[in-house]
Design a protein that fits this description.
The chain is α/β, with parallel strands linked by helices. It folds into two domains: 43-249, Type I PLP-dependent aspartate aminotransferase-like (Major domain) (Aspartate Aminotransferase, domain 2, 3-Layer(aba) Sandwich); 256-345, Aspartate Aminotransferase, domain 1. Helix content is 37%, strand content 15%. Strand 8 (281-282) and strand 9 (288-292) form a beta hairpin. The termini are far apart.
Length: 347
């Protein structure tokens, strides 16, 4: 099996306020009354790509959008599958991280190599370690979630450049998942022009706090974007997602950056609150905080009974950790008040 690149052209859709559109199956479009509904006509994703290119100061040809980052990750895996030429594709990543990487690997019969990430043993997860891991497992591509989540490790631009360069020499595609980037970490975006083995995955879900918007996009060199874009759906995003995303990009200070500051403030509040209670906590670059407690399983179950859901049932040897999303200080105050009741009851 070999890959055939099909050139996909994004035509800007004609504005339904200016054109009487009778060429597509669109309804509720009363041109005379200017009675328009975003959900009744086809969206124009090209406008969104244009806004993202200006937002990141890169070419439009370096961007592909999709229905959340998941749809694009699936396209990337499918691209590898088509390019496999009957050989076993091998990929690796740290765990726990986004579970769909493992599921997609199983579906496409890729060979997966994983290693555990410990938030209190950051020195064990280094660029040196990753290099050895790639060589040992003879990987075709490696997925680096940076910063990683839920157990956070963050690499600097110097680290990333070293890894990208190493992967290029070893003919390894490097996928840097930056879904949690933007809350203190740096983006590998500047390396796109120089390295043709790099794919960056981004989203509005985590750092900007809009998971329901379902906006994901990838950034890479022109050639890779064109090949992966060959696999895209005819219409990737709803009109509401496109129009709302453009609105946010046009006023990033009010919408995007305001959410970033709110998440950072909540994250700082969480660390201070855990410290007061003598509970170790970790995570300074993402939208969540990890903590450790010998009774984490009981804490998780108790909070669930109180209608508070946290992540706590990690498999061994990660079963001493819990993780909370730092949505807002007000939400965290409720969490810590319930946690205090549990801690007092256990004394």
């Amino acid at each position: 099996m070999s890959f055939t690149k099909v050139k996909r052209i994004r035509k800007p859709d004609l504005n339904p306020e200016k054109y009487l559109r009778l060429h597509r199956a669109e309804f509720g479009h009363d041109f005379k009354k200017k009675n328009l509904n975003n959900n009744n006509y086809y969206p124009d994703s090209k406008k969104l790509i244009n806004k993202l290119s200006k937002f990141h100061k890169i070419k439009e040809s370096n961007i592909n959008v999709g229905l959340g980052s998941e749809s694009l990750i699936k396209d990337i895996f499918f691209w590898f599958f088509i390019n496999s030429k009957n050989k076993q594709i091998k990929f690796g990543h740290g765990k726990p991280n986004y579970f769909m990487y493992s599921i997609l690997g199983k579906i496409m019969n890729f060979r997966e190599s994983q290693f555990n990430i410990f938030p209190d043993k950051k020195e064990s997860f280094s660029i040196k370690f990753i290099k050895k891991f790639i060589i040992k497992n003879k990987l075709n591509f490696f997925i680096l979630v940076n910063p990683s989540h839920p157990f956070e490790i963050n690499f600097t631009l110097k680290d990333l450049k070293e890894l990208i360069s190493f992967c290029k020499k070893k003919n390894v595609i490097l996928i840097i998942d930056e879904v949690y980037q933007g809350l203190g970490s740096e983006s590998a975006l500047q390396f796109i022009k120089k390295y043709n083995n790099l794919i960056i995955v981004k989203s509005f879900s985590k750092a900007y706090g809009y998971p329901g918007l379902r906006l994901g996009y990838i950034i890479s060199n022109d050639k890779l974007i064109q090949e992966i874009e060959s696999l895209r759906l005819a219409i990737e995003l709803p009109s509401d997602t496109i129009n709302t995303s453009i609105k946010f990009l046009n006023n990033k200070k009010k919408y995007l950056l305001a959410n970033v500051e709110k998440i950072k403030s909540a994250r700082n509040f969480a660390h201070k609150s855990f410290k007061i209670r003598n509970i170790p906590s970790y995570g300074t670059h993402g939208n969540s905080v990890t903590f450790t407690h010998k009774k984490i399983l009981l804490i998780g179950k108790y909070l669930k009974n109180k209608k508070i859901i946290i992540n706590y049932s990690y498999p061994r040897p990660l079963n001493k950790y819990g993780n909370i999303t730092t949505t807002s200080i007000n939400n965290l105050k409720i969490f810590f008040s319930r946690l205090d009741i549990f801690l007092k009851s256990e004394k």
